[in-house]
Design brief:
Length: 291
């Protein structure tokens, strides 16, 4: 493998943001080479040096560049290495895919895997290593993050489950109807166009109050009722804020729902300013220590 490195020297650190970024980029290119040769360059030659090396490193006829991923320690061809835009940390596609997938399944937006680095990972750049299914999940997480938890709405129909904002739903629901969206809890899904109740998060119940519908045969024989019965049996908890079900597998009883609402898993009381408002036990030993 051919190698060439230009080492940056100087008595003073660059003060210009553009120069600092340029120095970081050149140093990043340096890390790809094996052998080094020291040349003294004037500061105003920096851009030329960067363009020269960048041109060579992008030419397959001159170089075959292999990098070591700092997560899996495998040596990977550089076209399979992902660079986090803001911090310039680099990891292989495989490690980044696993990292992003884990964060998305936790309901979070992924950040740079580097310890204590909080640089966000852009959704467009993730197309390089995410499959279409994970990419769609990330688009959903980005949209969720842009909407306040109290304004998030999910379609209750299991074959749809579309995510919407309250503003989108109101705009999509006909206000000229005798059951106008502003007068009742009726809303229309922006994806499947079916009507649902935004108050009790179920398909729309004509001529019934929410409490009346919950007691009716229609609800008791529905999948929603079966799910509620299973939740009671398995001791799952419903988030008061977004109505999503939460299951505690391990850890303490302080729950932070994906919508941002925090509550006690035992009694459902809200946590305020990271402090519990109830007298329940915070944790049980068998939930924290594994056999």
């Amino acid at each position: 493998m051919s190698s060439l490195v230009i080492q940056l020297k100087g008595k003073r650190q660059p003060t210009s943001n553009k120069v600092t970024t340029l120095v970081d980029q050149v140093n990043l290119i340096r890390s790809k080479f094996v052998y080094q040769a020291l040349f003294h360059m004037k500061r105003n030659y920096m851009k030329f040096v960067y363009r020269l090396i960048a041109k060579w490193t992008n030419s397959d006829s001159y170089f075959t560049i292999i990098e070591q991923c700092t997560i899996c320690f495998e040596y990977i061809h550089n076209d399979q290495i992902y660079t986090v835009h803001k911090c310039l940390h680099r990891y292989c596609f495989s490690c980044m895919r696993q990292h992003v997938e884990a964060k998305l399944l936790q309901g979070k937006l992924p950040e740079c895997p580097h310890e204590k680095c909080e640089s966000k990972i852009g959704i467009d750049s993730c197309k390089k290593f995410l499959n279409p299914e994970l990419y769609d999940i990330m688009r959903l997480r980005v949209k969720e993050a842009s909407i306040l938890p109290k304004d998030r709405v999910y379609c209750p129909f299991s074959k749809c489950s579309a995510f919407m904002s309250k503003t989108e739903v109101i705009a999509h629901t006909p206000s000229s109807s005798s059951t106008a969206a502003g007068d009742t809890g009726m809303r229309r899904c922006v994806e499947c166009n079916r009507l649902f109740c935004i108050n009790c998060k179920v398909p729309w119940h004509d001529d019934m109050t929410c409490s009346g519908y919950m007691k009716s045969y229609v609800f008791q024989s529905s999948n929603d009722a079966k799910l509620k019965s299973l939740a009671t049996k398995e001791r799952w908890r419903e988030c008061i804020n977004c109505k999503n079900l939460v299951e505690l597998t391990s850890g303490c009883y302080h729950i932070e729902c994906r919508c941002g609402y925090q509550f006690c898993y035992t009694c459902g009381a809200e946590w305020l300013d990271k402090k519990q408002t109830c007298g329940c036990r915070l944790w049980d030993e068998h939930n924290i220590i594994y056999a």
